[in-house]
Amino acid sequence: MADTKAAAVMPTPTRKKLPPKTIVAYSILAAVLVLVPVLVQSATGWEFIVRIFVIVGIWVLLALGLNIVVGYAGLLDLGYIAFYAMGGYAGVIIGQAVSHWTGGATYFLMLIPAALAGALTGVALGFPVLRLRGDYLAIVTLGFGEIVRICLNNNLFGLSNGASGLPYGNQVMALPFGAQWLQDNIRFQTPLGFFQFGPNMYWYVIVVMLVLGAIFVIRRLDDSRLGRAWVAMRENEVAAEACGINIRTQKLWAFSLGALSGGIAGVTFAYVQQFISPESFTFMESVFVVCIIVIGGMGSIKGVIAGALLIKGVPDLIQGLAVAGVLKMPAEMQSLMSNYRFLVFGLLMVVMMAVRPQGIIPSSRRARELLPEDGRILAEEDMQEWDVENRANTEPDDV
Amino acid sequence: MSDTTSTTAMVAPVTGSGALVLQLKNVHTFYGAIEALKGISVDVREGEIVTLIGANGAGKSTTLKTISGLLAPKVGEITFMGEKISGMKVHDVAAKRVVQVPEGRRIFPRMTVEENLGMGAFLRTKDPEGVKSTLELVYELFPRLRERRAQKGGTLSGGEQQMLAMGRGMMADPKLLMLDEPSMGLAPVVVETIFETIETLNKAGITILLVEQNAAMALAIADRGYVLETGSVVLQGPGKELLHDEKVRKTYLGEA
Ligand SMILES: Nc1ncnc2c1ncn2[C@@H]1O[C@H](COP(=O)(O)OP(=O)(O)O)[C@@H](O)[C@H]1O
Ligand SMILES: [Mg+2]
What we know:
The complex is a heterodimer of chains A (about 400) and B (about 260). Chain A has helices at about 5-10, 20-45, 50-70, 80-100, 105-130, 135-155, 180-185, 200-220, 225-235, 235-240, 245-275, 285-295, 300-325, 330-355, 365-370, 375-380, 385-395, and strands at about 185-190, 195. Chain A has 17 helices and 2 strands. Chain A has a two-stranded antiparallel sheet. In chain A, α4 crosses α11 (about 245-275) and α9 crosses α11 (about 245-275). By secondary structure, chain A is an all-alpha fold. Chain A has one domain (about 20-385): ABC transporter involved in vitamin B12 uptake, BtuC. By secondary structure, chain B is an alpha/beta fold. Chain B has 2 domains: about 5-95 and about 175-250, 3-Layer(aba) Sandwich (Rossmann fold), CATH 3.40.50; about 105-175, no CATH class. In chain B, β9 (about 225-230) and β10 form a beta hairpin. In chain B, α3 (about 115-120) packs parallel to α6. The two termini of chain B are about 10 Å apart. The model of chain B is unreliable at about 1-15 (pLDDT under 50). The interface of A and B includes residues 236, 381, 385, 388 and 399 of A. The complex binds adenosine-5'-diphosphate (ADP) and magnesium ion.
């Protein structure tokens, strides 16, 4: 996905060829990931479980993108869902216009305009606002997220069909290549039960590939000049500038790479649902993505996956089980649960911040930032230039 | 010491022999409405150590920040190797190998010593061999840093952090190295080491602009010095002459 874009900014002298061991490891991982839902579905007979995997996967993608912005570059973006929306709507609007010619390739082709829509929106927003300090940036991005949603809701430029969403009532969205054939022809007996290939399985495979692609790119970014510039920037902006790092450009890269990933998640979400409407892009959705990162572990890929499983997977699973009638629950109980979900997340956040602020599976560098072993580090950080000068003059240091 | 209105005997400015590297012409810099630099002119020639001394708040750091592009002068011009650099962005100035070691030891506290030094070479992407040899040079100058290369910057002592900040500045292969109060808050023994290193760097061919409150030490190693008072140059001349100037001795060297 982001390979080409990211590669352009990485003139790393240390760039190596991908070692075969890594390729093997990734292939095994991919195989295991595909096997899990096959076995779960055949053992339980519930296709909706696979769908939950798909949705969680999309949220992992979303959270990985925001993680670049928040976790790596240290920019708090509270309107991240806007890029998800931009990707989704760009993919559907353009896709519906061309699907007559593109047919089963529509979704795959639409990854490009969706990624561009995300990234360009990111640049357009980032350019003017990235000179703002952290808290102001959070507020501006929050406002931006709401503006996008409200524009979509009000059918701005007559493109989004307002609250009723897209596609229009008389249209359908093209199914991707082979989905129908796989459904008609793939059914087999597993040790755990009978497996029938459903539409969700198709999307699951695609989402897994997107997520693995994103992880691959992000890990490469970590070792790149760009990655090191982000760490330096988080640690000390003045020193980073003195090293010749162009702070604004680096921030803009983080912002637009994150937005690009959001755009790809958005178009995937739209084609999985075969429908898109503004109610999927509320402020709460932005908050959820931030929660996933904070609870999972900022700057950590594993943490983000754990966070998505917990924040998105668990509630969806409970709801799915209830709808399927496995969990016997009256309807009002169900709606009560979905309402209380916010309370539970709120509590979870507070508890996490008190007990384990670095998240479930923190990145080693981030954990250090939150829990420095040496008091000197924090003291140094909180000092303004004036403090440094004046305090240091009155309190001579040791050697 | 704030007696700025008294007539200040100007020591005759001496022009060095090397080519002009850095020139500030009548630079005025503001913080909002506050005029921190009131028309400063400074020359730095190739191979020199030039020092700016003055009391706290005189405008020394402001001068360095204006040169490095953190601040833009409202009036006046700064040229480096004949090219106008005033108004340029910080990273563009850094790319010209005008390197500032900011005051207060701004290192990257959670990076290791070696990672810190590596960041100094951020712009030297086309020269990995050169970076390696500079790293070796830094470790030779500061054996302490070599010993602690895997240690996190924030856990170093004050003196070691200053060495690290200077080392990081050197990693950029500077043409002009600007040091902002490198001796600040350090024990006298460490200050000696720092000043010796500055002389060594200079002998190795790096032109140095040194900002100091420790006037005695700075003037002793400087080819030329400028004395700043509330945003203006009140005195300038060869280091040794300033060191013996009566007013300097009274005001900055604490003699009765
Ligand atoms: N960020 C700032 N905002 C406003 N005034 C400042 C700022 N930084 C420095 N000053 C003022 O500018 C003057 C020069 O400061 P500075 O250059 O830091 O002095 P020095 O480095 O010589 O101690 C001082 O009067 C100081 O109060
Ligand atoms: Mg100062």
